[in-house]
Write a structure and sequence with these properties.
six-stranded antiparallel beta sheet, alpha+beta, about 375 residues, Rossmann fold, 10 helices
């Protein structure tokens, strides 16, 4: 099947395979780099392995590629177990952070290399390589060498070299790590559009939560070799299960308290200083129960002398806390405030800045309005 036929295929299973990871582990002595991970990646979707350095995400990616063996568990592609299959026969392709382009080959030769190793006739290999380079908009740079390309162009060339063999799974290891911010932002969007157009199942490793939100169909948040939460980007952002996930994916405030009363719609959470917040009622909540909450910084409304500077007033049930601006920083399109509420408690509030709007001076008394639906009850 040529690349054009591959792209035209209506079947997700043909264009990209379902990836199943079942109870996979990898230990180095007493250290568990990957600890009993199970994941299902639907055909044609993009999964991001998200987490801090050392959480095991790159080890898991290399296990899928076949560069690292598994101590336990199975990995299957399209229902076929691949742990015992050599890396070059797994129907996977990997793009490294360094891109790993051959410096002595032109971009066309680099792109043809995988086809050459598969003994594809030279004329056909050239046609398919040009199709892949056209896909990443590099057909006018085919005779250049990697050293003559920008970082973004090198990344596109590496993607073309990976895609030309039309793998069932594409693996990306920190693909934007070597790029500056503007180019990184641009390439994130280009990758997402490219992955959707090709339909190849993709697994990407990153520690950048914003990047994961932009490019992913699914996110697996990892910590200490385990997946601590799996779901769509909005699932992860709107309903984090733990304080770690809430803090790692977006800016949030963590507070704890006990349930004071419950009705059919909301429950009241009494903080240790006596302040009260409203939270959504749930069958999992009971009177007197101690709970931990996460509240997104951009979900808190802020008012000075009754004048709101953020979201408009709504009919949502909300609580109001009195505070004082302790610190502020201008982020361009946003302003971040640290507001002291009571003794020793601070809330981070992020407000979209309007043109010409001045920052609220430190020391200014303010009211924080927190809707019940903005208070996310954490499991742990």
């Amino acid at each position: 099947m040529t690349l054009q036929q591959h792209l035209a295929s209506p079947s997700p299973e043909t264009r990209g395979g379902r990836l199943t990871i079942d109870n996979v582990s990898k230990r180095y002595g007493a250290f568990a780099a990957v600890d009993g991970i199970s994941l299902e990646v639907p055909a044609g979707s993009l999964l991001t392995l998200l987490g801090p350095s050392g959480c095991g995400k790159s080890t898991l990616l290399r296990m899928i590629a076949g560069f690292v063996g598994a101590d336990t568990g199975t990995i299957a592609l399209g229902g076929k177990h691949i742990l015992d299959v050599p890396p070059n026969k797994r129907d996977v392709a990997m793009v490294f952070q360094s891109y790993a382009l051959f410096p002595h080959m032109t971009i066309l030769e680099n792109t043809m290399f995988g086809l050459k190793m598969r003994r594809v006739p030279k004329r056909q290999a050239r046609v398919e390589a040009m199709q892949a380079l056209d896909l990443v908009k590099l057909t006018d740079l085919t005779e250049r060498y990697p050293s003559q390309l920008s970082g973004g162009q090198q990344q596109r060339a590496a993607l073309a070299r990976a895609l030309v063999t039309h793998p069932k799974v594409l693996l990306l290891d920190e693909p934007f790590g070597a790029l500056d911010k503007d180019l990184r932002d641009q390439m994130q969007l280009e990758l997402r559009k490219l992955q959707q157009s090709v339909g190849v199942t993709t697994v990407c490793v990153t520690h950048d939560q914003r990047e994961a939100m932009i490019i992913s169909d699914y996110i697996a948040v990892m910590r200490h070799g385990k997946v601590v939460q799996f779901g769509t980007p909005l699932d992860i952002y709107d309903a984090p299960r733990s304080r770690f996930v809430a803090d790692f994916v977006g800016s949030s405030n963590s507070v704890s308290g006990r349930i004071g009363k419950i009705d059919s719609q909301v429950a009241e959470c009494i903080l240790d200083n006596g302040d009260r917040l409203q939270v959504p009622a749930s069958k999992h909540l009971a009177l007197g129960q101690t709970i931990e909450l996460a509240i997104r910084a951009n979900a808190i409304r802020l008012a000075v002398d009754g004048q709101r500077t953020a979201l408009p007033q709504t009919s949502e049930t909300h609580a109001t806390l009195a505070g004082i601006v302790a610190f502020s920083i201008n982020l361009g399109d946003m302003v971040r405030y640290e507001v002291r509420v009571g003794e020793g408690r601070y809330f981070v509030v992020e407000i979209e800045r309007q043109p010409g709007q001045l920052m609220i001076p430190n020391g200014t008394p303010v009211d924080l309005s927190i809707a019940a639906q903005s208070c996310m009850v954490l499991d742990a």
